[in-house]
Amino acid sequence: MNVRRAKEISQQSEIIDVYYNDETILIQNVNEADGTARIYSRNNRENELTVPVSSLIEK
User: Fold this and answer.
1) pTM of the predicted protein model
2) Cα–Cα separations (whole angstroms), residue 18 to 8, 23, 42, 51
3) Element (H, E) at 3
4) Is the pLDDT of residue 36 over 90?
5) Best CA proximity match to 29, nearest among 57, 45, 5, 6
């Protein structure tokens, strides 16, 4: 995924299927400067991670 698309998804009110390591996640925010996204699992919203946007997959 690219930074622009990740940012679009993070700003939408509808839920888009995005995966990180085969787990469905939600994108909290995107840091365009370093190409990372703050994400959390749909199943465990307390487990937040910062990951490279390129590792996210939209299905």
Assistant:
1) 0.90
2) 12, 8, 10, 13
3) helix 3-11
4) yes
5) 6
